Amino acid sequence: MIAGHYGVAYLLKGGARPKWSLTTLIAAVWLGDYLCFVFTLAGVERQVLNPSFTRMFAYQITYGPYSHGLAGAAVTSVVAALAGARMAGPRDGAILGGAVFSHYLGDIIVHGPDMAIFSGDGPKLGFGLWNYPLFADLVECGMLAAGAVLYLRATRAKNGVGRSGLLILAVIAGAITIALPWIPPPPTTTQLCVGSLALLGGTLPLIAWLERQREPLPAG
Ligand SMILES: [Zn+2]
């Protein structure tokens, strides 16, 4: 899932209005993939190029119980919730943990059956919406649009950049999701992991800067 993950972050920021910045929530919803790429590079988890696995994404996780398993995601989310509760109180801790766990829930809708339950060698889940690009695009872009509208209505722009910056970013995320079947996959797993970490991590300072060009509106 791509656009849908961003949608959850926008939705949580605009709807629940936690103390966490939108940038922190975006990092939280992507934590599962950060861990997956780092663990794969470290040889702890494995993914392979398999163009026939789903029609929209050519990589298959062959061993990923920590980053993309139900039990692994639950543990990571509880740790995030407890750490968040210490920093910002129980409500915001729960929101941070929920953001982290949403990665698993979002991915299980679109992935092929490569998401572990407990052990990486046991049964795997994945409803395979990535085999139906039109429906996948509708779900993902619908989630992003709903989240972006809620966030934009809960905040106001301080300047011109604030008016359009995050909106443009959301449109780019939606366009990448729709274009996914036509984007050639990185030829090696290492290139997938390094490139994705650079892209996901590299955009966070830009998102943080764009977020500072808007300010929250009073609730209600
Ligand atoms: Zn993922």
Question: How would you describe the overall organization of this protein?
Answer:
Helices cover 65% and strands 9% of the residues. The chain is mainly alpha-helical. It has one domain. It has a two-stranded antiparallel ribbon. A two-stranded antiparallel sheet has the order 3-4. A two-stranded antiparallel ribbon has the order 5-6. Strand 3 and strand 4 (124-125) form a beta hairpin. Helix 1 (3-16) packs across helix 2 (22-29), helix 2 (22-29) runs antiparallel to helix 9 (189-211) and helix 5 runs antiparallel to helix 6 (90-110). The two termini are 32 Å apart. Zinc ion is lined by residues 32-33, 68, 103, 107.
State the gist of this model.
This protein has 220 residues and is mainly α.
Mean of pLDDT: 95
* Rg over CA atoms: 17 Å
Series of secondary-structure elements, N-terminal to C-terminal: HHHEEHHHEEHEHHE
Strand content: 5-15%
Largest sheet: 2 strands, antiparallel
Low-confidence stretches: none
What are the distinct ligands in this entry? zinc ion
Give the count of structural domains: 1
Shape: globular
Tag the structure with descriptive keywords:
6 strands, globular, two-stranded antiparallel sheet, mainly alpha, binds zinc ion
How do the strands and helices of this protein lay out in sequence?
Layout: H1 3-16, H2 22-29, H3 31-41, E1 46-49, E2 59-63, H4 65-68, H5 70-88, H6 90-110, E3 115-116, E4 124-125, H7 133-154, E5 155-157, H8 160-179, H9 189-211, E6 214-216
Antiparallel strand pairs: 1-2, 3-4, 5-6
Helix pairs in contact: 1-2, 1-6, 1-7, 2-6, 2-9, 3-9, 5-6, 7-8
The structure holds zinc ion (ZN).
